[in-house]
Write the structure tokens for this entry.
Amino acid sequence: MDATLKEPKKVKAPKKKRIRGIESKKSMYGRMFILPWCIGMLLFFIIPLFQSLIYSFSTVWVEPGLMETELSGLENYKFILNEDPNYTNNLWSAIQSFFRNMPIIIIVSLILAIVLNQKYPGRMIFRSVFFVPVIVATGVVMELLTKNLNGVDAIITLTTETENVYSEGTGGMDFTVVLQSLNFPEEITKTMSGLITNIFNTLWSCGIPIILFLAGLQTIPEQLYEASTVEGATKWEEFWYITLPMLSQTLLLVIIFTMIDLLTQNTNPVIQQAYTLMSAQSVYDQSAAMLWLFFGIIGLGVGIVIFLYTKILLKKWN
Amino acid sequence: MEKENKKINIPEAPKRSIGITKYQIKKNVKQVLTMIARYALLISVSYIVLYPLFALIAYTPMSRTDILDPSVIWFSKHPTTGNLVAAWGALDYLNGLSRTLLVGIVSAIIEVFTCAIAAYGFARFEFKGKNLLFALVLLTAIVPVQILAIPLYLNFRYLDFFGLTKLIGGAFFDNPDFVIDLTETPFTFWLPSLFGVGLRSGLFIFIYRQFFVGLPKELEEASWIDGAGPLKTFFKVVIPSSGVVFLTVTIFSIIWHWNEYHLSVLYFNNKHPLAVALSGVVSYFTQSGINYETAQGAISAACLLFIAPVLIMYMFMQRKFIQSVDRVGIVG
């Protein structure tokens, strides 16, 4: 009912009067559909979110049966930033790897999705193959596969150091050495070798972005491409003027998804530190502060990206 | 690429030109080159993508002699089942599997429906504050679960929403300190799922909503005119025509529930599901001199056992799943 009252000029007056009853009924039905979700969101999202925010600003200690909190202002934040020896380093490396990996994952998965979307024999097989890392290379399995735990060698070695050892032993090619001998500046050498060793991790994280992009590509009407071919557009122009603008909504979804995926990975050093603090030492206040600071910075960064994206690019494309 | 094919086939069909023109050679060469490049890219990426799976399968049957033998890379020369047996015991496989099924899969199935219901409300009806609430849906999707983990754990450990439990405890059991402890029970996952705020529910509501918005309204209007209520319309008209999106969300939800670790490790100390058991498998092997062939082989076997059910499910459903992704058009 409120919706109809707010925009009365768009609807013709007599029609409005006729449908008003149905509309109010419909809005009631709408509320009915989302009522369970509203309750759940309050209980399992809003309240815990505020609780954890409060923990980060207070001293928390556990008494048998209950948790006691006392507000202490910025104490926890000051402690983790000034006195904790590892936090600032972890924070910095986590933020760096987040903003480094995010664009790579998005670009790589977009390219792969476009290739997978073309028509050629065997494309269904490749499509189903590309989803496999979502099942295999996630969470705990990944951690077991790529880490040296308790003196057991990792099954898959990815780090630069071990690769150097291997290449020296077998006489294989080491990209770092090659790039250095070509007199590239060290910055570029580092990034390049980082990219090469990262390619495994990147491709394993691409499973769902590829699926999302593929779904988005399916919604682009074929006629647009036909029309552009008739007009004489090149493939490059087709990509920038048709594919990308038509994928704008998908791109937003992929950004959001990749963000959650990167943030919640077990390999994230900040999360690891906070989790060990929580589970091993039952320190809930500082760990909460650690997580809030990290997610706050990331949230701010991504918020700016999404804001610019919707304000500039989406406007330009639509 | 289809378009290129057509372009070439059309001039060939009349067979007017006797020899092959330069233009055609150029076109054909270009076509062959793009095909080679495409397959080269796809095959090399597929190799990287499948590499962990290959490694797991290769390491599982490896015995001690195989690990030390430098000529053995992929195929074991002296295959053994010792690793698999050790991993089976370490994971407490059948118990862990049944717990994962009970906790994760049931929760996933509940979530698939409750998220659809909420998303339908967002997609089809107008009401006050809808946009604000939908922004909250996106917020639930974005906020990482780690930040909520401790308060959620405490809420389930000492279940007391708005002091209700204490009230009931005081009134009925004459015990003001009465608390319900839901940890170690599947309700820790079932309850949030039941209210549509389970694992990654925000993302699912978003996917559903985009799909429902794109669904033609006519069928639902016809059902309304025939006198069916909104719930009946939803179950009899909307759900049957949304099979593809349901399949997509079901597969996502099952996989994420299967891999869920951050909350399970807090909620379950003794009766933990497979993912938690798997995370402890390395320390289990290295601490208690369990009989296994090689540590790497045993760990691989454990990982393989862990992913096997989901992998088999995916193998059976992949064709439908990939086709459904084609048709869902997740972002309409």
Notes: The mean pLDDT of chain B is 81. The longest helix of chain B spans residues 22-59.
